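Summary of Year 1 activities. Much of the first year was spent building the evaluation harness for sequence design. The harness presents a backbone, in tokenized form, and records the residue chosen at every position. We chose the following record to illustrate the format because it has been used consistently in internal testing since the harness was completed.
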């Protein structure tokens, strides 16, 4: 990729990574419930999941997935089930006195956050669209081109996701009241469940 192509793709990646969506709702909820440091594996998992997807899409897998509607439908069903399960866990997380007598909620870790990207058909569409728009054709080393493409996306996704995680962690101070915490948990769970409608469309 030329410097101009890399910059254009980097700006695209920042916009794609920083706009609200299931991954960023998950980062806010994780930061608010588990704090910044315990939320970092979730952030790294989201970035690694999308980075690996960008790599494979650039290498040719993205067009293969999009060419088979039954595969996309399977991804929709798995993604919807996974998001609804996460939404339930977030919405029912203990608050206040219940949290004090229960073990702290286990945040979504690296593997769970990475898996969220792989079952999201919209993530596949974004990856395939990015490849078609920003990846130059030709070149001798397809693996190297795909790796650079993925690394540019991860370089944009990490700081973008970090902002959402920090926002969630900062909200912890406002959520010391059990009622506020319960309302926040339910609101985050509903927001995540609402993203299922986008997947099933």
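For this record, the design step produced the sequence shown next.
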């Amino acid at each position: 990729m030329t410097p101009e192509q890399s910059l254009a793709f980097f700006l695209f990646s920042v916009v794609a990574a920083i706009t609200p969506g299931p991954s960023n709702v998950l980062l806010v909820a994780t930061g608010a419930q588990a704090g910044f440091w315990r939320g970092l594996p979730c952030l790294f998992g989201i970035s690694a999941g999308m980075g690996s997807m960008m790599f494979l899409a650039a290498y040719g897998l993205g067009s293969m997935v999009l060419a088979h509607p039954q595969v996309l439908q399977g991804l929709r069903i798995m993604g919807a089930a996974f998001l609804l399960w996460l939404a339930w866990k977030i919405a029912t997380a203990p608050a206040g006195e219940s949290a004090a007598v229960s073990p702290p909620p286990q945040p979504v870790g690296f593997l769970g956050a990475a898996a969220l990207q792989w079952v999201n058909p919209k993530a596949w569409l974004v990856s395939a669209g990015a490849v078609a728009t920003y990846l130059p054709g030709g070149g001798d080393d397809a693996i190297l081109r795909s790796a650079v493409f993925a690394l540019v996306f991860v370089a944009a996704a990490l700081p973008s996701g970090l902002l959402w995680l920090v926002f969630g962690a900062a909200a912890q101070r406002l959520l010391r009241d059990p009622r506020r915490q319960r309302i926040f948990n339910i609101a985050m769970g509903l927001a995540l469940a609402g993203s299922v409608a986008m997947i099933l469309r």
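The chain has ten helices and no strands. Quantitative recovery figures across the full test set are reported in Table 2.
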